[in-house]
Write a structure and sequence with these properties.
Strand content: under 5%
Helix content: over 70%
Radius of gyration: 35 Å
Distance between the termini: 83 Å
Order of helices and strands: HHH
Oligomer: single chain
Number of helices: 3
Largest sheet: none
């Protein structure tokens, strides 16, 4: 049996008639308990619907972000001028420190 297959609805529970027996359950207690079950079913169904809608929204949002990231992806060209400047700056800063400590 598939767990995702719901067998009863709130209406099914509400309209269920049980046969009475000589030493059966107290009908009012059973009805009260079934009312609570029906309310829970309705709450669970609303939550399932809300989560399903949120899941769909997040999937759409994720797909949109993936497409925008792919469109905005850099072409990975290295800016050699910037790297050369950084290298010269490191030499100027760290080169002086090493020269001062060796003296």
């Amino acid at each position: 049996m598939d767990q995702n297959q719901i067998q009863l609805s709130g209406t099914d529970i509400l309209e269920k008639d049980f046969k009475t027996a000589m030493r059966g359950y107290h009908q009012a207690e059973v009805d009260e308990f079934l009312d609570v079950i029906i309310q829970d079913y309705e709450i669970f169904q609303k939550e399932i619907n809300r989560l399903s809608e949120e899941n769909d929204r997040l999937k759409r949002q994720s797909g949109t972000q993936a497409r925008s990231r792919a469109a905005a992806a850099p072409n990975h060209q290295v800016n050699y001028d910037l790297l050369k400047r950084l290298s010269n700056l490191e030499k100027a800063v760290f080169g002086k420190k090493y020269a001062d400590t060796e003296s």
